[in-house]
Fold each of these.
Amino acid sequence: MALNSLRGGIEPDAHKKESSETPIRHVPLPSRLVVPLVQSSQESARTIITVGDRVLKGQCIGEAEGAGIAIHAPASGTVAEIGYYPMAHPSGLTSQAIVIEPDGEEHWITYEPLDPATASRDELILRIQASGIVGMGGAVFPSHIKARSKTETLLINGAECEPWITCDDRLMRERASAVVTGSAILAHLTGARQILIGIEDNKPEAIAAMRAAVCDMEPVALKCLDADKITVIAVPTRYPSGGERQLTRILTGIEVPPDKRVTGFGVQCFNVATAYAVCRALLHGESMVSRIVTVTGNVERPGNYETPLGMPIAELIALCGPKPGTTRILMGGPMMGFTLPSLEAPVTKGCNCLIAASAELFPPSEPEQPCIRCGSCVNVCPIELQPFEMYWSSRAKNFDSARQYHLFSCMECGCCAYVCPAHIPLVDYFRFAKSEIRARDEEQKAADQARARFEFRNARLGREKAEKAARMAAKAAETRAKSAGEAALIASAVDRTSAAARTPRDRQS
Amino acid sequence: MTSPHTRQPDSVQRIMITVLVALLPGIAAYVWQVGAGILVNLAIATAAALAAEALMLRLRKRPLWITLSDGSAVVTAWLIALILPSIAPWWLTVTGVLVAIVMAKHLYGGIGQNPFNPAMAAYCAMIVAYPALMSQWPSVDGADFATQVHLILGGSREIDGITGATALDAMRTGLRNQNDVHSILGTGVFGFAGGRGWEWIAAGYFVGGLFLLARRVITWHLPLGFIVGMGLMAGIFWLVAPESFPSPLFHLASGGAMLAAFFIVTDPVTGASSSLGKFIFAAGVGIIAWIIRTFGVYPDGIAFAVLLMNICVPLINRATQPAPVGKRKSP
Ligand code: SF4
Ligand code: SF4
């Protein structure tokens, strides 16, 4: 199959071997699990337990609201508290969370398994929502929303292009069959006619395992899609081939404009770990209560850890033996990840990787120099933007010009900053400009709304005045009519006094 | 600290050093064909550029070391030394460097902000101010090293016998005197492609340019744009009237053409930004340079052509801004 090439991109040191060569390990339960109510990019869940309740592993503790997902107890135990906790977020945001003290018994409560061949589509999709499944690549977009829209081609993303991260690699090596089954179920739900599984060619074991799993598909998967409709494709190792749009282009040749969703182009993309979770949820009735996290970098025991959701990051890191010289912990990969402001934050569904950073592994960036317009950033931008023009505009706070250079198409992949010989933190400038523009738009909107409100109020006051005037006029007319009637009555009754009686009343009104 | 947390070990300094290395074959050919005097000029220009850069940074209260060590001033210095006559007196070189660093670079805000190519601004200023000195080029094997140093250090300029007309001058004068191209090329000034001896220097620059391409310091759009621009103009007229217009090869091998193609139009700061824009920019330089060479009064038109195209850069950038992925009008 002919592959299209990624535009731009870079080839940073992979650093995969540090964590990819040991099997996935299970993590002992911590003393407390902190389960945030918001676990997706949509609405937060609604608590359905109270402090002191006993819960089982996998038990729903927060029901899905709107387009959001349900959340579950990651272990059996007692609800200890509902309170605000710091979250894994660059700004150190806090969020409401349910704290569970595990009893160590690991009693599961599972749903009734569903057979994709007989269960209705609605039933299956509802189950995905009720099981709390979101995109595991980091975007945490609820999977039931994506599964609901029909598509031609299903892409399964196993590219894992960020350096250091190997959780998808290990998952594919060890649990390929479930990944393929989950993919087939997703194809069944979306009506996709074919599945393309893209894996970077620096993961030969994963590619082999996935190919073997496709050749030897589970009967339940075969009921969803024929094996010959599934292709495992080795894609050249080049960051950011695992970006949804980039992978779409590599595998199908379709160029999706930055302001459109891939869905509109007959393509739907799920991460391999998401496909795995779908398989567990539908065929085994297990809600999403854990995920595989790569812990690597400056630690004694780098590797992949099947971690209960809600485990405080500090405890997970401690298990892996951070070495002296660890200065900070990165969440996500080194290209797009961020430094955790607090290690008290819990592991959540989007937490694919934690990297213990030291000055040797991640030297502080060199001082920023002036841009020499060398164009290196242009050559590597996967969206073919002109980063340095956006930089000059952002620096000069000329935000309209930055927008004209398609600032909002920037995916913040960091390729440009990676190559810049002047060591300019380009992505920082872009984030700054974007937030400034958003703030300005918000202000503009607020001002527009205020003006609209003001105008509406004026209009309302005017209308009320007019109505009041009309009412008064009506009343006056009524009064007049009444008095006229009365007068006539009086006139007819008391002939002689009629003229004298009407005159003062007229004057009154 | 924010993403990305890892960087490619690249720097402005490394780029500039690569450019300096790429100039070495041309400089070696210069020494071989014309004499080692050029090395003295290179040294003077380098010292003057670093001093001027340091002074300006101090005056503008900018961190000294980081810019001084980025190598950009040295690149400018070397280019100036290479485009001025190599027996020019030291003060001419120094003045040229000052024009480049102080006026063309720092008065516009320093590296990255200057709209005009500093080396070309220096050349134009010098040729307007000192037309006579700027046209005294050593002839090949004309002056030994001692004589060259003597002239550079400001000694009395007894230059009969050691200077000669450059290929471009000889061609221009010959054509003015109603000779045809073929007979002009028969005189001793010319070699196999351009000026005898000088064509080797052009070849050296060409080799250095290929090195820059291989190291991805420059992209092919610029040198090719220049070569196509100049070659196309020269080619059309040469095909129509070969007796009054020299061939494209002559133009490309003479004067500063090769230096311009690989080292001057490739200045990133003062050029266009998109690939198409780069090509247009460089082709424009080639075309204008050919026009000035053919119809103008100056010995070589490249410097003026570059400055003229520098002015057009904002226009070119606006006209050639590429659309992002998926937004192209036709696929
Ligand atoms: S890579 Fe850096 S120095 Fe080069 S043009 Fe881009 S921003 Fe400027
Ligand atoms: S961060 Fe934005 S501008 Fe830079 S390479 Fe990525 S998409 Fe392009």
Amino acid sequence: MNSGIVTTNGFISWLKTYSGRINITEKAEKYSREMLGDHQFPLIKNVKEVLFPSYDRVYQYRWDQKGWKLNDLAVPATPTLLVALPCEARAIFEVLDRVFRKEDSIDSGYQQRRQDLSLVIFGCTAAPEPTCFCTRVGGNGLWTHPEALFVLPVSSGLYIETENTVFSGLMNEAKPVEEATRKQIQELNKKAQEKMREDTLPQETPQALYDLFHDPEWENIAWKCLNCGACTFLCPTCYCFDLSTEGRLKGYQLKTWDACMFPKFTLHASGHNPRPGYKERVRQRVLHKFAYFPLREEGRYGCVGCGKCVEICPVNWDIRDVVERMVKKIGSGTR
Amino acid sequence: MVLAPDEVRNIYLPTLYPIQEIIPETTDIKTFRLDVSGSSFHHQPGQFAELFVPGVGEAPISITSSPTQKGILEFSIKRVGAVTAAIHRLNSQDRLGVRGPYGNTFPLPDLVHQNLLFVGGGIGLAPLRSLVNYVLDTEKRPDFQKVIILYGARSPQDLVFKWELETWKKRTDLVLMVTVDRGDDHYKGRVGLVPNVLKEDVTVNPDLWKGIICGPPIMIKFTIKALLEMGFHPKNIITTLEMRMKCGLGKCGRCNIGPHYVCKDGPVFTYEQLQHMPGEY
Ligand SMILES: Cc1cc2nc3c(=O)[nH]c(=O)nc-3n(C[C@H](O)[C@H](O)[C@H](O)COP(=O)(O)OP(=O)(O)OC[C@H]3O[C@@H](n4cnc5c(N)ncnc54)[C@H](O)[C@@H]3O)c2cc1C
Ligand code: SF4
Ligand code: SF4
Ligand code: FES
């Protein structure tokens, strides 16, 4: 990795030279004074908005005398610089990419937006919100990816790190990292790694939770939830979508956000519904993230521990409590 | 992994194919034969496709034709809602959008050199038919042993593929048994529920046969029960499932049973696999 030290002003001036859209997530913004001073950029609630818009036209259809025509709609190239926290960045690399960039079925719209994306990760040295729990699901406050620009305030300025040449303008201005700072970073990294190792759910958790599929506790867990879906729309990893049409003789095929919280999501044409009630739907949301996704995706949790769903929920349904409640029951039931 | 976006085709975009022929089957079922000659569309028995009517939407439908029938694709469709009704309104030469093929296939490597017992109910014969005609293909037939087809519907009017049942009946290398729940004045054939006919009239050595079933959920349930009573091992019972589907690609998140996406890992499962799944279907 290339690394260096820049000043806050140097960093902000470089951001201003960026020729494209700049977005910062609400979560990163709250935590960004040291990096951005009073400088403000357009806020987004959630990283997925940039890559997987809530409303997306995937192709166009049109009727004329000769019949139907289908036109592919290429997503126009829109360079975007996104500032996010490590948990939110993991939602992209560890979850969304694994769905929409799956090698046998790459989503071309996602791929275009993803290639236009330059990601800046603001490191967290302390959990910024009381609802944060990234270390429980395999993350930590200093998590980064070589493709992203990692930024962390240190005594001598802002420490930056990347392997991506998109950021070479900034990297060229950077001063070398002095020995003391390097030590400081190493120390912080060590602490973050240790905390992650201590906190992360044991490797067998996904299968063990799946084995609790028929546990009566799900009934209690679902009791309070309104099935309003707010959590799923705020969640950076919730990726379920609907495909529908808009317009009769001329219109668009739409790809729009959908959620497992709604009965229509799984309703069969016969009227039968495999997830007819709150229990089945809440269980799906929890197990998708904590069992099914990791079982399919090399142990990656479908939750990055950002805590947004806990903050938004009108009835204070708390996924952390739910997971801990079920983890305590591990070994007590069978599927 | 880094592919330029223009090298990636749009996975949601269907291709329009002209309808060559429409065969009315029952009051609410029609079979549509599409001309796909010259296209690279290639499927295996058991797969399905997403059919698209512009301005209305998509529906997942089993490909009922065998891949050995070159240049065509057939779909038998029951009119139940918006999309299926719109497909029923189409005429010969109209074009229908097709995306796919999707899903796994009947486990051909496990089926070669085996005796095959097909049990179909109602329009559930449609997915089985892709495999039946594959097995009956002149080139493939020697790869398989005996074939029994037990097909049932609620009434004589509800039997689909009557035109093809005639052809199958004439063949000497298979046994075709047709039954209906309730007969009528003109019907001279067998009357009885599929699982009962199976238990009463089919005698096979369960260790030497594979049972391949599709039909309404209730029929599948009782047919599996009957096969188990006849001594079939759960791994020798094969069925196909239906779920509400949108993408067909394991992405949109709605068709899973536990960690298994029916659109991708299915729709074909053995009963043994289903026994290890939570039954949320
Ligand atoms: C793998 C697979 C293979 C299949 N193969 C076949 C096949 O070979 N042949 C076949 O005929 N079918 C097949 N099906 C079933 C088929 O996909 C469905 O019947 C079809 O999707 C129904 O779509 P539709 O748009 O016509 O119905 P929809 O309009 O979606 O309606 C579905 C049902 O919901 C009800 N509904 C619609 N809108 C509303 C509303 N606003 N509120 C309440 N209820 C509403 C309708 O009354 C209807 O009963 C298959 C399904 C799968 C998953
Ligand atoms: S489930 Fe909640 S905590 Fe986990 S990633 Fe989604 S919003 Fe964040
Ligand atoms: S957990 Fe809370 S936010 Fe999510 S659906 Fe239930 S009530 Fe709504
Ligand atoms: S239909 Fe979308 S995941 Fe199966």
Amino acid sequence: MTLHLTNTAKTFSDGTRALLPIELTVKTGEIMSLLGPSGCGKTTLLRIIAGLETPDTGSQIFFDDDDVTLQQVEDRKVGMVFQSYALFPNMSVRGNIGYGLKMQKLAPDKANARINEVLEMCQLEKLALRSIKALSGGQRQRVALARAIAPRPRILLLDEPLSALDASLREVLRDELAVLLRKFNITAIFVTHDQAEAMAIADRVAVMDHGTIVQSGTPEELYRNPQSMFVAKFVGSAMLLDGSCKGKKLTLAGGVQDLPKNTTDELVFVRAEDVHISKKGSLTGTVQTTTFLGTHYRIGISGIASGVLTSILAGQTAPNIGDTVKVSINPEALLILPNGAHKE
Amino acid sequence: MIKSKAKLLQLTVTLTACAFLFIPTVMSVMAGVTANYFKGISSGVTLKWVFQVWELYADSIFLSLWLALACLVVTFIIGLPAAYGLARHPGWFSRVLEEFISLPLAVPGLALALALLQLYGTMKGFRTSWTFILVGHVLYTLPFMVRSILAVLAAMDLKTLEEAAASLGASPPRRFLNIVVPNAMPGILAGALTVVTLSIGEFNLTWMLHTPYLKTLPVGLADSYASMRLEIASAYTLIFFIMIVPLLMAMQWASSRAQRIAN
Ligand SMILES: Nc1ncnc2c1ncn2[C@@H]1O[C@H](COP(=O)(O)OP(=O)(O)OP(=O)(O)O)[C@@H](O)[C@H]1O
Ligand SMILES: [Mg+2]
């Protein structure tokens, strides 16, 4: 199913403009992620698509050619995974998964077959008769997913499905979820404020800020070609190199950096993996922090730009704190973005 | 040494307190099955008094049971939607409303009965019917039902659970029946037992509202104390205990279960 939103906005009764008029299309079978900082309107947008929130007049929501703008949530045939999972405590795992099928009045033998199929897909066969109070966080998440998917919804909506889990579990389940969602072969929208999560799971990411979608595209596109400072910072944590540009040279506190093109008004950003510590570097800074991360070190360097510049160092040893180091940045790796295109 | 002395003191105090509470009860129950109270238990054990009480006051006992049941039905029908409404729309208005429902708890039963008499006393048919007493009992027990259900409902994320059911295709009545009612059940049970127990034991209000033909169990008890032999009054107490103690125990169990869910 293709989801199409036009001119969709939401103003809450207290005057909060949680969502400014937006356009959004999610193609059949695509997994779209809504990514943005807290309070940017992700949940609001998801709830509007589900029918749990009424959008402002003038908004239009289409499921294929079906205008569902005025349809009640119970008639929309959406699957929703809530942040808290919202499993029914009065039912077993099986009861939870079968609830949507019961509402559809599916014949018992068909319903049972469907429940078994979903249980197997989500690896919950052994837990089918358990009470949901006797499940771990990860198991609950799978039950919530199974329950949402069992009635064959037209679209699957997930609101930060991993945020209720421990950090260590989150990474494992993130990849598991990505595999599972593709197995379902369903149009899905996935809300998160964690860019790594969005990158790992989604086919396409829409970055949101202050109630608008500021940029959308594949994870690669967003990472390599951010169109604004906000996206550059939010996706892949780009760091600002603030200095004065003149022609193809950027003069920083720590030296002069070559630029790939003539630049005057724009802002220059760089990512940690493109900041190399090397003897031939043209920039000079002082090591502030070193963090050992197993496969690599993270080095914080001050004195080059006004903020601390982070560098990823793959070597066996790291410089000491307080050492003066030379840094080189390949001009082609720099991100040059319009100034003031997006104010924070 | 000091420690064991302190323990001993503690034990003595506890046992004394228990004895203080239990001995009159036991004495009273014993009196109810003693052939001749003035000669003591040595005069023999008999069920004569119990049967006599049954003959004299069976109507009161049935009226009390019937009232308790009716009171339960009415408080449930009013209390469940009320608690649901309060749980679903938290805010200052709900708080005020909740306090308002609880007002009859703070007003003495006699005053409440007086208000009812002043208001409806002239409506003869209503005044002399058992439903008049029922109104008093409902007023008095409703807050217990509402609060008990509310405590359980407020402990879960009802709004999200209902939204989840809605997204799975459940209409509002289905959500209420499949999600709200089963999850409120421990609260309903605890509330129901409280209502029944309170209704059976209620005296203040009922004494003011009753007519000579409508005596409940506690009113009959007062009556027998005032006008009967001590053995009969004691046998009456015995019957009262037999009815109320299992209810009290069930109530304890149900409310501790509800508490566990609410926490
Ligand atoms: N019922 C409501 N009434 C008024 N304002 C609301 C309501 N719900 C949300 N908001 C506001 O709308 C804005 C967007 O909220 P929303 O929940 O969509 O954010 P979010 O992107 O999901 O954030 P988070 O990552 O913290 O979940 C916020 O400023 C929030 O305070
Ligand atoms: Mg949210």
Amino acid sequence: MSVDTVSLTGWGRTAPTTAVRFRPRTYEEAAAVVRGRGPRGALARGLGRAPGDAAQNAGGSVLDMTGLDRVRALDEEAATVRCDAGVTLDRLLRILLSRGLFLPVVPGTGRITVGGAIGSDVHGQDHPGAGSLARHVDALELLTADGEVRTVTPGTALFDATTGGLGLTGVILSAALRLKRVTTPLVSVSTERATDLDDLLARFTAAGSDRSPYASAWIDLLARGRATGRGVLTRGEHAPSSVLPAHARRTMRAPRTVEPDRRPTGPLLPGGLLGRTATALLNEVRYRSAPRARTGELRTTAAFFHASDALPDANRLYGRAGLVRYRFTVGYGQEETLHRVVRRISARRCPAFRAELQRFGAAGAGLLSFPAPGWTLAVDLPAALPGLARFLDGLDDEVAAAGGRVCLAQDARMRPETAAAMYPGLGAFRELRAELDPTGAFRSDLARRLAL
Amino acid sequence: MKDAFGAPQSLLVLGGTSEIALATARRLIALRTRRVWLAGRPSPALDAAAVELRDRGADVRTVAFDALDPGAHEEVLGKVFAEGDIDVVLMAFGIAGDQARDEEEPLAAVRVAQTNYTGAVSAGLVCAGALQAQGHGSLVVLSSVAGERARRADFIYGSSKAGLDTFAQGLGDALQGTGVQVMVVRPGPVRTRALAGRPEQPLSTTPEAVAGAIVTGLRRRSETVWVPGSLRVVMSALRHAPRPLFRRLPL
Ligand SMILES: Cc1cc2nc3c(=O)[nH]c(=O)nc-3n(C[C@H](O)[C@H](O)[C@H](O)COP(=O)(O)OP(=O)(O)OC[C@H]3O[C@@H](n4cnc5c(N)ncnc54)[C@H](O)[C@@H]3O)c2cc1C
Ligand SMILES: NC(=O)c1ccc[n+]([C@@H]2O[C@H](COP(=O)([O-])OP(=O)(O)OC[C@H]3O[C@@H](n4cnc5c(N)ncnc54)[C@H](OP(=O)(O)O)[C@@H]3O)[C@@H](O)[C@H]2O)c1
């Protein structure tokens, strides 16, 4: 097992702290790290894609789980898989696709681990139908504070605390997931342009729109005036095998005629150069180059779900100060709040390139899970923007007043009292932790900052 | 923990009645700071400072700390860190001395040196060790432009700040990669109450301006901060001015 002392940040590259990093290769090695932890505790870390400080543990131990990466059992008949927590979604998707299987929930990047995905109970573009990842987990193996491994199953308090629990209940060693079946590795995509935010929301909810399970929109947050909140809505559904030429139907390989999507999805400028004028220009190009309305375009699953993974690391574009992701949700009926937030961001002329609107369906049982029925918007902003801290505090207040919440797994800046107000499950979460882990074996910078 | 913008939740001030430090504490409380320790020599002024910050919504505690008693630093500061993480330590104690008298009374001069330099070396090392153990945090050291180049008017004070500055720079280098930031702050003359009434000096600043620069420096994770910022350029020129010329400058 390799051990080193490293300075760690999340994907946003803000607030670095130092920890001793262990890279266990077996469950026993992981247990030894947890048993031998120091006074500042231990924490599991996947690929560090959480934008904030969720996967950091200053002065303590961090278990880099990427060395535990075996797929233990794949049951094609039953459509289930059991794998180690360090397996990446990318790799899992490749293995599954060749067998006509697919992950039940696919977040916006494939470069995350199964453990990290469960730890933040990720959601995909099809949340209204599929729910978040926890809904598809049959069982977990969890390494707890006593150094023992427990099998945790749905319907138990520990399961609900662990899914979305940000590594604070223990180290997920492996997980058994229920999969879905697909007949092709392709997604049939439709794209439509919306002239403003109202138009965009209307298109999201238009009659018949639930035929395509996946839906996500990019919002041009630099558009102003009547165009405020304009965007491009993209929907997708797994393509049926009838779209493939006969010879390709059995192989699950994408036919050569389907090109990976090469349209710009992110800026390709050197670090820090991305000012608001450049972003406004890029946004304009992006909006104009999107088709007004198009259906039936075929894309590979990789191009549809993870186009930005093919680009150089976008987080380096934000300069030394890094980036802050603001992801929140407000319920249906609170569209006015969504409007206000979009107007406020637009009015400030923040250079926001990545801005993504999706819908959520029913919430899961995870005590700290983020999704709740409503709209969810995620915006990446340069941390160096003057006054951003206060501005985001203001948005927090707006979101909280509407009964909404800000995503913990992606947070890097919330106030503890706001987080407590937004997550009513926090009380139960604390009680369970106090009982299961009275000495606080599992700790993170996020948990310290927000007093979770 | 500091947030993505470098705003701390907890603050330890060494020299709890310092005007610059209190201006900084006010700003930080307006951001994220909830726990404040004011370390200093017990006095009504120290208690009053605590009350004032408490009124701004922080949980403030005072602790007896004397820069001239390095033997006790480990214990006093150790207790503070044992009560919870400290995100920012602000080393603000210091005395300007009285150049004319200090030249007459070597023991008074030694007192300036011991407060500003050896006291800071001791407290700085103790805090650096504690910050390193917690894996994060910033040590903000109030140096002075007076330490950049010896001046006839205040070289006793200046030499103590020169020592402190060099010490803090080296400490910052030693702590590279440990997650701990050492930030050296070099203000020009600060218009504090002590200086009130004296004629305006060139490139002078205010406690509020220094506080603002400290908050920005924390956000940017800077290593050196000049206040006002133009001092950086001015001093890079003056640093190399020949001594006969420098002596004749009206500084
Ligand atoms: C470009 C991009 C797009 C994204 N899109 C989405 C999206 O569409 N939907 C969504 O929900 N999220 C999304 N995210 C967020 C991302 O999915 C989560 O932050 C995820 O947790 C990152 O996984 P990771 O393996 O990198 O985990 P890390 O960032 O390393 O850790 C995240 C959290 O999980 C915990 N954890 C990690 N491994 C384990 C384990 N084995 N046992 C217990 N706890 C563990 C950590 O302690 C930490 O609290 C996106 C992130 C990026 C950068
Ligand atoms: N003011 C300026 O023009 C200027 C310019 C550049 C740099 N600086 C530096 O910035 C720092 C703060 O300046 P300021 O103007 O805010 O200072 P200040 O208001 O004069 O406060 C100085 C502080 O140092 C404390 N102190 C002095 N001797 C001490 C000792 N032996 N033990 C513990 N504490 C002691 C004082 O505590 P008591 O209340 O107990 O005396 C007081 O809290 C100082 O290091 C100063 O040298 C000041």
